[in-house]
Design brief:
The protein is an all-alpha fold. Helix content is 73%, strand content 0%.
Length: 240
Amino acid sequence: MLRAIEIALQFLTIVKVRLDPAADLQETGRAAWAFPIVGAFIGLLLVITYWVLSGHLPSSLVAILVIGLWVFLTGGLHLDGWTDCWDALAASVPPERRFEILKDSRLGTFGALALILLLAVKIAAVAQGDFPLIMLFIAPVVGRGLMVVTAYGSEHRGAGMAAQFLSGIDARIVQWVAILGFGPALLAGWTGIWALVGAYLGAVCFRRFAQTRLGTINGDVMGAICELAEALVLLIACIR
């Protein structure tokens, strides 16, 4: 159990854990049940940072610093998938060309616009003076839970990173991910439930959109699902 948490922590954050032997992607898939636990670790740090800074800085600046910490803790791992996806999925080109765009490390126009919009939504949501901090904790938990749940059983191509990762996931792991990833949303009452439902629908729709455009999913799509789910949780938390 401890090794699974260490694998998930190293895979999803900038925290370096000494693993002996090193984990491959299939073992990382088997450790995916711990992804929501890592999300809870990230969420707790974000809430503490917000609480410490909110008494000394304007809410808009606090929001920028909190989201900046969020990006730093994850090493921009899923943001990279988000931008790559929109560069590829929004382009009017054949599927094979989209795969080439996904592998291109350069940031295109669609990816840049998607990145700006995503970060703007997150910052604007957290900057609300009465934003419920429990939702800031829940967002990274739900995001990492949905990344696994919605990707399970999806079509994937060849023996790439996504295929190796998904080969380590079975129905039992998905059940634990759902329990650990979705359970905390209940702590926020109806707000948390509606945020979870909205994030789930958004994640499923994005996965289907990606499959339509690519014919499969990969690691970039999974990362994009995580980012989208997080943003939707924050966005729905602001609805009056």
